[in-house]
Design a protein that fits this description.
This protein is mainly alpha-helical and 77 residues long. It has helices at residues 5-31, 36-41, 47-73. It has a domain at 45-71.
Length: 77
């Protein structure tokens, strides 16, 4: 069973966008931009802000990737 082109056009770029978002979060935390890592590590529940960052970046980057992929479907080359 093969997936329709429209579904494949959303799943693959969406997964790549989510992965890119997680890499961006890792980069932010690794480089300690504006003392963010220190703030998170010294909080009472450090998993909550990390979870919120990961979710927010995943949604944003995944949506951008899916949108770009859908827009590219309409191009005639």
């Amino acid at each position: 069973m093969s997936l329709p082109v429209q579904v494949r056009a959303m799943l693959v770029p969406g997964a790549a966008g989510v992965l890119a978002g997680q890499v961006a979060v890792a980069g932010l935390l690794a480089s300690d931009v504006a003392g963010l890592r220190g703030l998170i590590l010294h909080s009472d529940a450090p998993f909550v802000p990390v979870l919120l960052l990961c979710f927010g970046f995943a949604v944003t980057f995944g949506s951008v990737a899916i949108g770009a992929s859908i827009i590219a479907l309409g191009e005639d080359d």
